[in-house]
Amino acid sequence: MKNCLITGGASGLGKELANIYSQKGFHIHLIGRNADKLTEARRDIEAAGGEATIYPLDLQQADAADKLADKFQADEKKIDLLINNAGVGIFGPFPAVSLADIETTFATNVYAPILMTKAFLPLLKESGMVINIISTAGLRGKKHEAIYCASKFALRGFTESLQKEFEDSSLRFVAAYMGGMNTPFWDDSDYVKDPSGLPLPIKIAEKIVEEAEEKLEIIIET
Fold first, then answer.
1. Which of 121, 131, 163, 209 has the most crowded Cβ, counting Cβ within 10 A?
2. Which of 21, 55, 111, 148 is labelled catalytic?
3. What value does the CA radius of gyration of the chain take, rounded to a whole number of Å?
4. Does CATH place domain 2-220 in 3.40.50.720?
5. Strands lying side by side in the sheet with 79-84
6. Rounded to an integer, what distance in angstroms lies between the CA atom of residue 77 and that of residue 97?
C-alpha cells in the first residue's frame, strides 16, 4: 500500500485531501497538534474503508520532523506522497505585528515544511511527490498580510528551487496556490468576517488531487 503523509491533516483542506487519497488506496499518516481532532479524522477514514495512523506533533518544534522520520526509518516505511499543508495566518497592520507573531508564522509556514521535506526526502520513493500548500498569498502581496505573504513567498521560492534542483529525477515538487476557504483556519481570527461565504475545502482538495499528477503549479482562484 502507498503511504501519504499530511501535516495539518486533522481538519480543513488537509482532512479533505486525506479522505480523497485514502479512497485512492493510500495509507494516510496524519500530523497535527490536536490529538482529539486527529482521532476523529482517522475514524472518518477508517469508516470509509481506509487506513490511517495519527501523530500528535507540534511542528514548530525544530526536531519534530527528524524524530518522526527516524520512526519511519526504524519501521522501514517509505513515503510516496508528502503534503505540507499545516499553516497559520496572523493578519493586521504591519506596525502592530509582534516578534512572536513573526516567529510563529515562519516556524509553521516556512521552517516546518522545509524541515519536513529535508527529513523525509531520503524516505521518498524514487517517483515520490511533495505537494506544498502555499496559497495565493505566495503569488502577490496583500494589504494587512505582510508577514503571512512573506512566509508564503518563502515557501514558493523553496518549492520552485527544488523543482529546478530535481528536474532530472523522477521526484516531483508541486506548488498549490489557492484563496481563502471555509475552514477552521479562521476560528481564531476576525480577519474574515464571514468565512461561510468562502469555498468549501473539498472542492479545492478535489482540484489539487486532479491536477497534481500532471502539473507542478496549481492555481485555484477563489
1. 131
2. 148
3. 16
4. yes
5. 51-56, 26-32, 2-7, 79-84, 124-133, 172-178, 217-220
6. 41
115 contacts 61 by C-beta, under 8 angstroms = no
Contact, 24 vs 51, CB < 8 A?
Answer: no
User: pLDDT digits over 145-165, tens only?
Assistant: 999 999 999 999 999 999 999
Supply 166's cell numbers: 530535481
Asked if 148 is an active-site residue, the reply is yes
User: How far is 207 from 140, CA to CA, in rounded Å?
Assistant: 21
Angle at 5 between CA 7 and CA 75, to 5 degrees: 125
pLDDT tens string 18-27: 999 999 999 9
- Is residue 148 within 8 A of residue 97, CB to CB? The reply is no
Q: What is the pLDDT of residues 32-79, one digit of tens each?
A: 999 999 999 999 999 999 999 999 999 999 899 999 999 999 999 999
Q: Which residue(s) pair with 31 in the sheet?
A: 7, 55
Distances (CA, A) of 218 to 88, 108, 116, 195: 20, 21, 21, 23
For 171, the 3-state DSSP assignment is coil
Residue labelled with grid coordinates 501519504: 4
Secondary structure element (H or E) that encloses residue 84, with its range? strand 79-84
